[in-house]
Amino acid sequence: MSSGGVHYFFEGFSLIKTKGLKRFVFVPLTINLVLFSVAFYFLFGQIEMGIAYVIDLVPEWLGWIKTAISFFLWPLAVISVLLIFALIFGTLANWIAAPFNGVLSEKVERHLTGQDLGDEGVMSLVKDIPRTVGRELTKLIWYVPRAICFLLLFFFLPIIGQILWFLFNAWMMAIQYCDYPYDNHKIDFTRMRLHLSEHKGKAMTFGMMVNVFSLIPVVNFIVMPVAICGATSMWVRELKHTLAD
Questions:
Q1: Would you say residue 2 has pLDDT above 60?
Q2: For position 54, what pLDDT does the model report?
Q3: What region does 158 belong to: left with phi over 0, alpha with psi -120 to 50, or beta?
Q4: What sign has the CA pseudo-torsion 55, 61, 63, 68?
Q5: I need a surface site. Which of 21, 24, 29, 61 has the fewest CB within 10 A?
Q6: What is the model's pLDDT at position 192?
Q7: What is the torsional sign of CA 207, 211, 214, 216?
């Protein structure tokens, strides 16, 4: 029976706790934790400095305006940074963790299809690094020009620009995480993207959930392995059965 993207995302939370899969979750989880912690520390420090600079421009006798500006700018700055940060640093984390993410997706697929998880060792992972990094480069080349356009809309088209950025981000998250099982089956990026667009409703709702949970502090640390597991489940149960030979 067909399930929505929301269902598959939440299934990822159950899959990361599965016996035998936990060790393959550890590396993507650790990479995400380190990158997000460093990035949050840096970005929020910059926000604080920027807001302090703007407030200092207001004369002291307009103290109530200083308070109003601070009250208005903080939530606006935090939301804007989170929306941009979720995709940019998520993409960086996926670049670094790409070989491990591919292995996790492979193990989840084996688990869901009743196969032995196997233990191929480090050399199996090393030999796949050129392919997985090349795949991430392909995604980056596809993503960057589009991201620039949507970022311009984000800054210069209030409200509508933010909505469009969120939707683009959701589509990119669906592509990013669903790509791992496709890549494991040597399906090229263009074919993967076109096939995923045939299931855009399911893919977009999945990507939206990744988006939303990427904005939640602490929870965003585990979004990467959860999304990989959920996307692989969607591949196993639905997507691969509709892929033409």
A1: no
A2: 65
A3: beta
A4: negative
A5: 61
A6: 96
A7: negative
Nearest-angstrom CA–CA distance, 158 and 135: 34
Tokens of 48: 């604080």
> Do residues 224 and 101 touch, judged by C-beta distance below 8 A?
yes
Q: What is the mean pLDDT of the chain?
A: 83
Q: For position 82, what pLDDT does the model report?
A: 65
Considering only residues 235 and 129, tell me which one the structure prediction assigns the higher pLDDT. Answer: 235
Interatomic CA distance for residues 212 and 86, integer angstroms: 9
Helix axes 22-56, 223-237, angle to 10 degrees: 130
Mapped onto helix, strand or coil, the DSSP state of residue 223 is helix
Contacts of 161 (CB under 8 A, 6+ apart): 150, 153, 154, 155
Kindly state the DSSP code that residue 159 receives in the 8-state scheme. Answer: T
Place of tokens 């981000």: 169
d(CA 67, CA 116): 61
Q: Contact 99/128 with Cβ under 8 angstroms?
A: yes
Q: What is the DSSP string of 168-211?
A: HHHHHHHHHHHHHHHHHTT--HHHHHHHHHTTHHHHHHHHHHHH
| Three-state DSSP state, 59 | coil
What single-letter amino acid sits at 190? T
Stronger pLDDT, 50 or 135, i.e. the higher one: 135
pLDDT value at residue 96: 77
pLDDT score of 214:
83
Tokens encoding 66 = 């200083």
Pairs from 191-194 (Cβ < 8 Å, separation ≥ 24): 193/142
Most confidently modeled range among 72-86, 95-109, 159-173: 159-173
